[in-house]
Design a protein that fits this description.
1062 residues, alpha+beta, Multidrug efflux transporter AcrB transmembrane fold, Alpha-Beta Plaits, nine-stranded antiparallel β-sheet, 33 helices
Length: 1062
């Protein structure tokens, strides 16, 4: 027994099955976490190695190159890049998407173990770790304080971080910019030399007298006691009373040669919020945790904590990712609700019956709710991608039910009972329903096989739409006919005086008077139009061909731009400013304060300006991926909500750029409107490869100036390699240091101890530890002459001056050396403003072609433009595959090769609609729009399938070709328009939405609406005409074949007669 007969015969069972599906779906929905995007496991591995005291060049030569050469042979490796900085080497390994990172991590560790002996002495063991989205902060707080400022770090650790760590889902909590308590022992070199003492002896004395040591056990009477010598410092003032040594019986105390300062750490990182001294609290979540829930719990806990903090401490939110996520989710929810409303109204407009409308409307929640079961099963979340997928599907899930219900309604109008109509009508169309569903599945399933950024964006969309459409087909051939058999009413029968039977339709005055009459007029007009076109086939084909060619002109004339990803107005701008190399932190801070004041005056929409200048030595792993020095300023500008301001964030960024151009001391800046894990991004990068720094630097500078001067719409033009900075190179005389019993490592250590300081233990207080640092006073180490006169102890017990064993010279060197594919390189990056990414890339390439490339230097375009080209190439291959799959499905349905070819004639006109829609709206074609183009292949052919299938049915019933086409068009016009309009209106909220995050999916809505609108209008004309042309040709071939067979048979008969006569 067929599924629809079973459903009709067992209505209670059918209803209960689908009710169970709804309950399970709602249960799954309640358990789904909420996040911005699906959980991303990027195929990256990072290898970090420290080499203390080494410059960037030494790190590159002695560490980075060795690691690169070792790891380059790992299976599945796509790209290897590295960054060599002072004291540290970072190597990034990028693998193909889908690579098992656990396996390649084990391989990488094996290779690293083999090269450990080849790394220089003093370097650390390479640390390997995987990057993931949980490293990104989900919420940031600023903390202001006045009297409590010196002890702010302890307050935050004890009263904030400790409590927040108990919140479920919290990963890491970092404190940035809070003053750190330090105990400095500032040595007077003159006094130290007078006593003939090395600095290391002072540090050793301080450390050895700051211990609590176990000293055994002793039994006394009935008790056993553990003995302990306790000499840890209780107060910092005790350090001055420590005896360093004795000279001629006289003790030399620490206070005799040094000054003890219990203070805060020397300023290296300055944090300000709206011009006030501040610290930042940066919170990340655990992998897989619910971002929205974690942020909600943190906010709730912070409100409780505020009541326990000192009165002068103020806490506020700089960035809360849950707000952006929630706003985007709410915007998509509105789009879904509006789409649902539009679809229901369209169905009611065409059918005029509330019961029929209800039956169609039931299809929507059932089809969509099953998607929540899938999301829970695969461990995904309710995010922008999944909700956008539901918005895409909502207009299509009713298509199959519309076809079934419309056919059932026709049978009822002809006098059948609802039950009989449900069975026979469903039997007529169920194959077409399955075929049209397979067409959509053929479009969306291949999306799940994409990799890279496209795979992240489209895999979930492909599965959700496929599942929703498949469930909608099952509902259409089971629940829909069952509900029709139970809810639709049969027409009454009236027998007149002569015994004739008449069908009496229920009266709906307003519907029959206006809507039904309108339907009939449109259907009749369309049938007449088809008859005219069928008698003027050549003219019709010529007109449509001319329209197609003309529609391509905006694309052929360059009026349609291309981007990689749409950028979203999230209300935040990241401003990075670089001053001249060597600028002191104090001068950098003056510029930062000036910029803060000017930005506040120029942009009243600004709510928060969070500024960082300098570098934090204790920032941890996160600091390794940023370049922060004394001459750089980093600002996060937070504006009010999108709907509360007239200017977009992109216009505000342009105002800030104009202001930054006025400062001659600023040598480079960037105003980025895409921050963190935002999926937007459109930058053109020119990669310049070459070993010689001078050659690549000169080329990059020439290109930089050319782009700034000649490229329209170029913004934030900058070079990745920082300016060379002044360094002091200490070249030791190896023969002399050997004579004194020294080596390069010990000399380096002695110099570092005197300049940066020697860690001599910790001062412990209330469970916290504070560094005790021994170093020379500032006035003993702030010039080259003073550095040359540093005292270096020898193994013989005497001391020598540094200048006796080494030469000190000032030179300039790059602070960072970047490499890619094991070659040195730098990038010149450009951001487009009011131009498309494709247009900007073309202009930049033109400038590259004008500049002579030095020997040994290679140049190529990369960045987001390269990603765009790769993605578009993948999308084109996908499009070809989908067209083939759709053709195969249709060929199997019609058991014909010509019929699918006829239907595919609608696809080129979808392209016409896409181009016209993009041209009219001024939207560039990006990755999301390209996805809409791929989707259109399956959407637009559904109308042709319905039309051609019914034409075949009418011809089987004996109608002449042209009349069969005209009658089919008239009969199928309403379901075709219903399915097309429901899909169009389902996409309309997506295309028109102005909510946060709407920019991401707007191109898809515009592309689908434009393509479907034009394709539907043209398809209803060109498909019947081409069908008629190809059918006439086929009939002529068939007639000619039959005529030849008949002549052959006639000739054979004549031959037989002649033989008999003989």
């Amino acid at each position: 027994m067929s599924i629809y007969k079973t459903a009709i015969n067992r209505p209670v069972t059918t209803v209960l099955i689908f009710t169970a599906v709804i309950i399970i779906g709602l249960f799954s929905l309640n358990r789904l976490p909420i996040d911005q995007f699906p959980e991303i496991d990027p195929p990256f591995i990072t290898v970090m190695t420290t080499y203390q005291g080494a410059s960037a060049g030494e790190v590159e030569t002695n560490v980075t190159r060795i690691i690169e050469n070792s790891l380059n042979s790992i299976d599945g490796l796509k790209e290897i890049t590295s960054s060599s900085r002072d004291n540290i080497s970072i190597v990034f390994l990028e693998f193909e998407w889908g690579t098992n990172l656990d396996e390649v991590s084990n391989d990488a560790r094996s290779y690293l173990d083999m090269i450990r002996d080849y790394l220089p002495e003093g370097s650390s063991n390479p640390i390997l770790f995987k990057l993931n989205t949980s490293m990104m902060p989900i919420i940031q707080y600023y903390v202001l304080a006045e009297e409590s400022y010196p002890g702010l770090e302890k307050i935050l650790n004890d009263e904030v971080v400790t409590i927040l760590n108990r919140v479920d889902g919290i990963g890491t909590i970092g404190i940035s910019g809070a003053p750190k308590r330090y105990v400095y022992v500032d040595i007077d070199q003159a006094k130290l030399e007078a006593y003939g003492l090395p600095l290391e002896l002072v540090g050793s004395a301080i450390a050895s007298n700051n211990l609590n040591l176990a000293s055994g056990t002793v039994k006394m009477e009935k008790e056993q006691y553990h003995m302990q010598v306790r000499s840890e410092y209780v107060e910092s003032s005790e350090i001055g009373d420590i005896v360093v040594t004795t000279i001629m019986g006289k003790p030399i105390f620490v206070k005799d040669v040094a000054t003890i300062r219990d203070t805060i750490k020397d300023l290296t990182l300055d944090e300000k919020v709206n011009g006030q001294e501040a610290a930042r609290l940066v919170i990340s979540k655990k992998s897989g945790a619910n971002t929205v829930q974690v942020c909600k719990d943190v906010r709730k806990e912070i409100e409780k904590i505020k009541k326990t903090l000192p009165a002068d401490i103020e806490m506020g939110v700089i960035y809360d990712s849950s707000e952006e996520i929630q706003n985007s989710i709410n915007s998509l929810k509105e789009s879904i609700l509006f789409a649902l409303l539009f679809v229901v109204l369209v169905v009611f407009f065409f059918l005029g019956k509330w019961r029929a409308t209800f039956i169609i409307a039931v299809t929507i929640p059932i089809s969509l709710i099953v998607s929540f079961i899938y999301l829970l099963f695969v461990g995904s979340s309710l995010n922008i991608i999944s909700l956008s997928s539901l918005t895409v599907a909502i207009g299509m899930v009713v298509d199959d039910a519309i076809v079934v219900l419309e056919n059932i309604s026709k049978h009822i109008e002809r006098g059948s009972s609802p039950r009989e109509a449900a069975i026979y009508a469903t039997n007529e169309v169920w194959i077409a329903v399955i075929a049209s569903t397979l067409v959509i599945v053929a479009v969306f399933v291949p999306l799940t096989m994409l990799s890279g950024m496209a795979g992240i964006m489209f895999k979930e969309l492909g599965w959700i739409v496929t599942i929703a459409i498949s469930i909608s087909a099952i509902v259409a051939i089971s629940l829909t006919p069952m509900l029709c058999s139970q809810m639709l009413k049969a027409n009454k029968i009236r027998i007149d005086e002569k015994g004739n039977v008449h069908i009496v339709k229920p009266k709906i005055d307003w519907y029959e008077k206006y809507i039904e009459r309108f339907h009939n007029k449109v259907s009749a007009w369309y049938a007449n139009l088809l008859r005219w076109c069928l008698t003027h086939k050549r003219l019709t084909v010529l007109i449509t061909f001319i329209f197609f060619v003309v529609s391509l002109l905006p694309a052929l004339t360059g009026r349609i731009g291309t981007d990689f990803m749409p950028e979203s107005d999230n209300g935040r701008i990241s401003v990075r400013v670089e001053l001249q190399r060597g600028t002191r932190l104090e001068e950098t801070l003056k510029t930062a304060r000036t910029l803060e004041a000017r930005f506040g005056e120029l942009v009243p929409e600004i709510q928060i300006i969070s500024t960082s200048a300098g570098s934090d030595e204790d920032a941890g792993i996160g600091a390794l991926f940023t370049s922060t020095t004394n001459n750089k300023i980093s600002m996060t500008v937070v504006c009010n909500k999108k709907y509360e301001r007239e200017r977009s964030i992109f216009e505000i960024a342009e105002v800030l750029r104009a202001e930054l151009d006025k400062y001659p001391e600023i040598i480079d800046y960037q105003c980025a409107t895409t921050i963190g894990m935002g999926m937007g991004g459109n930058r053109v990068s020119v990669e310049v490869y070459g070993y010689d720094f001078d050659d690549t630097n000169l080329y990059a500078e020439e290109l930089l100036q050319a782009v700034k001067a000649n490229v329209k719409g170029a913004r934030d033009v900058n070079v990745s390699r920082d300016e060379e900075r002044p360094e002091l190179k200490i070249t030791v005389d190896k023969e002399k240091i050997a004579y004194h019993g020294l080596n390069s490592a010990t000399v380096s250590t002695f110099v570092r101890n005197r300049v940066n300081g020697l860690l001599a233990g910790f001062l412990k207080e209330d469970g916290d530890e504070y560094d005790i640092v021994v170093r020379l006073r500032e006035e003993d180490r702030n010039s080259i002459t003073l550095i040359e006169n540093l005292t270096i102890p020898t193994n013989t017990g005497r001391s020598i001056k540094l200048k006796e064993i080494a030469e000190i010279e000032e030179y300039w060197a790059p602070p960072t050396i970047d490499r890619k594919s094991r070659q040195r390189y730098l990038t010149v990056s450009v951001t487009p403003y009011n131009v498309s990414l494709g247009e900007l890339a073309a202009q930049v390439q033109a400038e590259v072609d004008k500049i002579s490339t030095p020997t040994g230097v290679q140049v190529r375009l990369a960045g987001d433009y390269e990603d765009q080209q790769e993605t578009f190439a993948d999308m084109f291959e996908l499009l070809m595959l989908i067209i083939l799959l759709v053709y195969i499905v249709m060929a199997s349905q019609f058991e014909s090769l010509s019929k699918p070819t006829i239907i595919m004639m609608s696809v080129p006109f979808a392209l016409s609609g896409v181009i016209l829609a993009l041209w009219v709206t001024g939207i560039n074609l990006d990755m999301i729009g390209a996805l809409g183009c791929v989707m259109l292949v399956g959407i637009v052919v559904k109308n042709g399938i319905v039309l051609v299938d019914y034409i075949n049915l009418m011809r089987d019933r004996g109608y002449e070709l042209n009349e069969a086409i005209a009658l089919s068009g008239e009969s199928r016009l309403r379901p075709v328009l219903m399915t097309a309009v429901t899909t169009l209106l389902g996409m309309l909220p997506m295309a028109l939405s102005q909510g946060e995050g709407s920019e991401l999916w707007r191109p898809m809505g515009i592309v689908v609406i434009g393509g479907l609108l034009i394709s539907t209008l043209i398809t209803m004309i060109i498909v019947p005409v081409v069908y008629a042309v190809m059918s006439r040709h086929g009939e002529r071939n068939k007639t000619e074949k039959l005529r030849k067979e008949f002549v052959f048979m006639e000739m054979s008969s004549d031959d037989e007669t002649t033989l008999k006569t003989s």
